[in-house]
Specification:
The complex is a heterodimer of chains A (501) and B (669). Chain A has 501 residues and is mainly alpha-helical. Chain A has a two-stranded antiparallel ribbon with strand order 1-2. Chain A has one domain (10-494). Chain A has helices spanning 14-33, 42-68, 82-108, 114-132, 136-154, 161-192, 209-215, 222-238, 247-254, 257-282, 287-310, 315-336, 339-367, 382-385, 387-401, 407-421, 425-451, 465-483, 486-494, and strands at 71-73, 78-80. Chain B has 669 residues and is mainly α. In chain B, the strands form two sheets. In chain B, strands 1-2 form a two-stranded antiparallel sheet. In chain B, helix 4 (119-142) runs antiparallel to helix 11 (282-291) and helix 6 (172-190) packs antiparallel against helix 11. Chain B is globular. Classes of the chains: A mainly alpha (501), B mainly alpha (669).
Chain lengths: 501, 669
């Protein structure tokens, strides 16, 4: 009898493996010799090393793509294509930026523990797996991996009640949404007979969603459509789509500010990566069925995010609702169901991530000890106290508002334009109205910073060199990609090389 | 050691372009960020700040690179019969495009950061960097007391970079970036002493008036994109001379572009900002509001010549010519009665720019560029001379309080004399040649009316410049007894001497030799007809006579006893008195604008603000705002903080979504 063993090509997920091993190594290393190292610099350094090595692997795969073409590996569980690698590289960059921004914060708040770094690494690994997964089971594992890490990270301010509460809410609702995602997988399995996104003969999995749609009649797809709806719900929760967004303001407010930035950048990119592959590739044939759902979500998300942000008084909550609105804008890119829509969405997510990381880093810095100063009134006259910081925050806010010559403007352009081309002009008009409403609260922060005098006797703001450097990087990138978007747009175009059957 | 090899990065145009444009930009950023911390050093007992030295060296570096570029270009063999602007179909071998990077690509429309190197752009780059270097050197002396010294030099460097981008732009968008950049620097420098309300107001005025022109320029660009599908200047010009743009479209596009030029180059009706712009530091006026920025419009019209030539029935060119001629006359009339030394020069600049547009309107584009260059020499010289005088007289600008300064400021006086003779059109100084070329072109085309206006303006020019020179430098000393005029330091008089020399020999660049300017520019700007033989001599003779009469008149009126009596008699009650008063009031154009545009505009704004806006729009907006707040409040109640409520809403979403899907796919199974 011949035993049919699957071919285990671990090299395909080398970046994820590297990150996970680094995380384990870090925990062991710290337990053994951590006490002897005074300033604890080994933690971020080791983490950085892991991220850099993983980046090296992913980058090599990205370069090899021209020769190898998109590959399906690990018995059909993951695919290596331009899309997956673009997302992975972006996530590694987010991880790196967030790591050094977090460190300043952790040291200041006396929260620096090895677990934080290990969790960051696990989270990035999970997020990366989301983009590369070609099977719903793998996708679910990835989802849980980074979600669990984030639940803990949200509650990392141990002495803060609000942080604990936020973690609890996020965890409960996360579990709730996971149930729907799992039910979706079950329905898909019932319809297709497999949980694979593709289904390729000779790859270890003959059945799959794309293959099923290519061979079945439109009448037989009902169960798959319902399954897809549930998957959208599960992923919509992660990217904070309305009406599955209720956790977002509470979690964003409670989490340590750098973690909030990391969530806004990373888990949005990961969630949308899964949605993009699922809807625009595997279920492309079914777009007539899922597009109405996505339209509804997009419109609701853009409007609710923008409108709710208007009445907030807490900067973290303002940015939380802003991140909801941004999710809505990305949905218009998904809606287009075209290569340009995909590359536009990726450009949007990559640039938004860099910008929002910078913005939350500033919130962390300005917040001071235990994040006491995060209300709008605490930003009064910031320009007169720290003109450079106020300038940096203004630039990031302008980018979030989508003002020309910032990356945010180009991002909106490249997601709206494909949507118009695909015939969804009215959704784009709603998006523009939402942007106009959103401009109000971004400008409101700026008005407070520039046009009001600072209160007497406010605490000085400390800006350490490393965080300053990373912040400067984020600001420069936001501006540079607004003036000269072509290089990143070219990369995002390469990212539309999908594995396909 | 081969110095040139280390200074000049070889004949690669990419490197040279980057050097010319980016070094000043880098210097500007550096000075803005760190300029405050730079110290000074001493040379011969004089404090010289590093910020100024850095700026001068940067501009010098750009100038050297521009020279290298010029040498390279001249070295390229040129095919016989290459005539630009649709004159012939022989390719101009001295054209190079430098592609820095793809700027943006939206759909099928791509714009690169591309720079065009040809005879025209290189010649103008030489002028900008050369004159710019001299003016920066002068500024070290002029500005050395100013507390914002480093910022001044940052703006100056930024200006140079933007101006060079404007000149080298290969597509209209790059040119427009430079166009807006110089506008910004002009605004910043006019309002440099923003503590003075006059300066702040003048800066605002310049900015707003320029915005009108820029809007027109933008519309022109949009129209050309729509008509040609490209912003590349070569494509547009090829389409225009190839007849792909209809005459009507070409007319509208040309007039819209000209609208931009009218704003930037201070022509009727948008010239009003330039005299007020004299509130800025004098060297900045010399560079921006005399030698370079204000000529950007002249350059743009010359560069886009084929679009103007393609106009239906030459309408666009006729408009350009008449606007230019009338501006020249109008501004010269005002200059005759102005008493502020800088304002005389400002109106003179407006008038001379009018000559350049007259040349453009006659299709004599290289003639316009020739006058642009000679004007850059002698007008920068005179502005800096005026600055030197103000420096000596504790910032006095009223000519009535000056006199006989040549005795105490020999170098300033002597160099100013050269500039005066050059602008008056005396042989063999620079201005004579370039002005004569324009008038000759008008005569040859049978535009006798334009020729007549130009000639009369030449008379006025000679008169008002003589009036200025004689009042300030000749006659008895008149200044306040408290001030003690003195010659300026070497950093100030060396640039004056260099420009003085150029004002004398500048005309030689167009003497008949191998590289004569008009011939050199022909492959880019095309040719134009000038009279030959006896006609040419007679025309030149007439122009010279007119110039001499103007000077003689001024000399009689201002240096002789009888002239003074005549003036006293004339200026009471006669029609001439009324004319002079009108001129002295600048023909009340500012007041007319205020009455016709500003006040109705203000009234309209008030009406909009307190009637339409407060009652109508605010009602809608407040209503919308109230709606948003009400909605927000309602939804916020849902955001109760209780997980059970969140989960309930989540579930509601799930139910709605799944119901919709089930309705869509129908019964399962």
């Amino acid at each position: 009898m011949q035993l049919d063993l699957p071919n285990v090509e671990l090299a395909a997920i080398a970046p994820e493996v590297v990150l996970s091993l680094t995380a384990l190594l870090l925990l062991v290393f710290d337990a053994l010799v951590g006490d002897r190292i005074k300033n604890g610099l080994h933690l971020p350094v080791l983490t950085s090393l892991g991220l850099i090595v993983a980046f090296g692997f992913a980058f090599t795969q990205w370069n090899d793509l021209d020769q190898t073409g998109p590959l399906m590996q690990l018995a059909g569980m993951v695919v290596l294509d331009g899309f997956a690698l673009f997302v992975k590289l972006s996530l590694l960059v987010f991880g790196f930026l967030s790591l050094w921004l977090s460190r300043e914060y952790l040291v200041r708040e006396k929260l620096e523990e090895p677990e934080y770094y290990a969790l960051t690494l696990f989270a990035v690994a999970g997020m990366m797996l989301m983009a590369t997964a070609s099977d719903l089971i793998v996708m679910f594992i990835a989802l849980e991996t980074f979600s669990l890490s984030l639940y803990v990270m949200v509650g990392f301010r141990r002495r803060s009640l609000i942080s604990q509460e936020a973690a609890m809410k996020y965890f409960l609702l996360g579990a709730f949404s996971s149930a729907f995602f799992l039910l979706g997988i079950a329905l898909v399995y019932g319809a297709v007979g497999s949980t694979n996104l593709y289904g390729v003969a000779g790859s270890g999995t003959e059945l799959g969603m794309a293959q099923f749609l290519a061979t079945t009649t439109p009448q037989g797809t009902g169960l798959l459509v319902l399954g897809a709806g549930l998957l959208i719900i599960g992923l919509g929760f992660k990217v904070a789509a309305v009406p599955f967004h209720m956790w977002t303001p509470d979690a964003y407010q409670g989490a340590p500010a750098p973690v909030t930035g990391f969530m806004a950048a990373g888990s949005k990119l990961a969630g949308f990566a899964a949605l993009l592959r699922l809807l625009d590739v595997s279920l492309f044939q079914l777009r007539g069925d899922w597009q109405p759902i996505v339209i509804g979500i997009a419109v609701l998300t853009m409007i609710v995010g923008a409108v709710m942000a208007v009445v907030q008084e807490d900067v973290k909550r303002i940015l939380a609702y802003s991140s909801i609105a941004h999710a809505g804008f990305v949905f218009t890119g998904i809606l287009a169901a075209s290569d340009r829509g995909v590359s536009g969405s990726l450009f949007y997510l990559a640039t938004y991530g860099v910008t929002v990381l910078g913005a939350f880093a500033l919130v962390a810095m300005l917040g001071g000890s235990e994040e006491r100063a995060v209300r709008l009134t605490d930003y009064k006259g910031l320009f007169y106290r720290r003109p450079m910081l106020a300038g940096a925050l203004s630039l990031l806010l302008l980018s979030l508002a989508g003002v020309p010559l910032t990356s945010g403007f180009i991002g909106k352009l490249v997601v709206f334009e494909p949507a118009i081309e695909a015939g969804f002009a009215w959704v784009v008009i709603v998006g523009m109205i939402a942007s106009a409403i959103a401009a109000f609260f971004y400008l409101r922060i700026m008005v407070v910073m520039y046009m009001q005098k600072p209160d007497e006797g406010v605490a000085a703001i400390a800006l350490r060199p490393v965080a300053g450097a990373v912040l400067a990087l984020s600001v420069v990138a936001t501006l540079a990609l607004g003036v000269m978007p072509t290089p990143l747009l070219d990369l995002a175009e390469k990212a539309t090389i999908f594995f396909s059957t | 050691m081969d110095l040139s090899a280390s200074l000049i990065p070889g004949p690669d145009y990419m490197g040279l372009t980057a050097t010319i444009i980016l070094w000043p930009l880098g210097t500007a950023l550096f000075l803005l960020l760190f300029g405050k911390r730079l110290s000074t050093f001493k040379v011969g007992g004089r404090e010289i700040p590093w910020a100024g030295v850095i700026a001068v060296l940067t501009l010098l570096r750009s100038f050297v690179a521009a020279v290298a570029m010029f040498v390279d270009i001249v070295g390229v063999e040129l095919a016989e019969g290459a005539v630009g602007h649709g004159g012939a179909n022989v390719e101009n071998a001295r054209t190079f495009t430098v592609h820095m990077f793809d700027w943006m690509q939206v759909g099928g429309f791509a714009v690169g950061a591309d720079f065009l190197i040809d005879q025209l752009s290189v010649v103008l780059a030489l002028v900008v960097t050369g004159v710019g270097t001299l003016i920066a050197l002068y500024s070290i002396g002029y500005m050395h007391h100013d507390p914002r010294f480093h910022r001044y030099f940052a703006y100056l460097s930024l200006f140079a970079s933007a101006m060079l981008m404007l000149i080298f732009g290969d597509n209209l968008l790059v040119t427009f970036v430079g166009w807006e950049g110089v506008g910004l620097c002009s605004y910043l420098l006019i309002g440099f002493w923003f503590e003075r309300p006059a300066a702040a107001t003048a800066a605002k005025k310049a900015f707003i008036v320029n915005r009108i022109g820029d809007f027109s320029f933008l519309l022109g660009m949009f129209l050309l994109v729509a008509a040609v599908g490209s912003l590349k200047i070569e494509d547009i010009n090829a389409a225009a001379s190839g007849g792909q743009i209809s005459g009507g479209i070409a007319t509208i596009a040309a007039l819209l572009l000209f609208g931009g030029a009218v704003g930037k180059s201070a022509q009727i009706p948008l010239y009003v900002w330039l005299p007020d712009a004299m509130e800025g530091p004098t060297p900045a006026s010399a560079l921006i509001h005399a030698a370079t920025m204000v000529t950007a419009g002249v350059y743009m019209v010359a560069r886009m010549g084929p679009v103007f030539l393609a106009s239906e029935g030459d309408l666009a060119l006729t408009v350009v010519a008449w606007v230019g001629a009338l501006t020249a006359l109008w501004a010269a009339l005002i200059a005759c009665t102005e008493y502020d030394i800088k304002r005389v020069l400002a109106y003179s600049t407006v008038s001379q720019l009018g000559y350049m547009f007259l040349a453009n309107g006659l299709g004599a584009f290289s003639g316009g560029i020739f006058h642009l260059i000679t004007h850059a020499f002698f007008k920068a010289l005179m502005f800096m001379g005026a600055g030197s005088v103000m420096h000596a007289l504790a910032n006095e600008t009223d000519m009535r309080k000056m006199g006989g300064l040549r005795k105490v400021m020999p170098i300033t006086g002597a160099t100013f004399l050269l500039g005066w003779l050059a602008i008056s059109g005396i042989v063999p100084f620079a201005g004579f040649w370039s002005k004569d070329a324009i008038l000759a072109a008008a005569w040859e085309q049978g535009e006798y009316a334009l020729w007549g206006i130009g000639l009369f303006t030449a008379l006025l020019t000679a008169y008002y410049m003589s009036r200025l020179y004689l009042r300030v430098f000749e006659g008895p000393l008149k200044h306040d007894p408290d001030v003690h005029p003195h010659e300026s330091p070497w950093t100030m008089w060396v640039p004056l001497a260099v420009l003085g020399g150029l004002s004398v020999v500048g005309g030689a660049i167009n003497l008949p030799w191998d590289l004569r300017l008009e011939h050199f520019l022909t492959p880019v700007l095309g040719e134009f007809e000038v009279p030959h033989g006896a006609t040419a001599w007679i025309l030149a003779g007439v122009a010279l006579c007119v110039a001499v009469s103007g000077i003689a008149l001024a000399r009689f009126l201002f240096l002789t006893q009888r002239g003074a009596e005549l003036r006293a008699r004339l200026v009471t009650g006669s029609w001439l008195d009324k004319l002079l008063t009108a001129s002295r009031n600048k023909f009340k154009v500012d007041e007319v604008y205020e009455a016709t545009i500003q006040r109705p505009g203000h009234r309209f704004a008030m009406f909009s603000a307190y009637k339409v806006d407060a009652k109508g729009i605010d009602g809608v907006v407040n209503g919308a705002g109230a709606l948003v707040a009400w909605l927000s409040d309602g939804v916020r109640r849902l955001q109760s903080g209780y997980v059970r409520n969140y989960a309930a809403l989540f579930l509601l979403g799930v139910v709605v979504l799944l119901s919709a899907l089930i309705l869509r796919v129908g019964p399962l199974g």
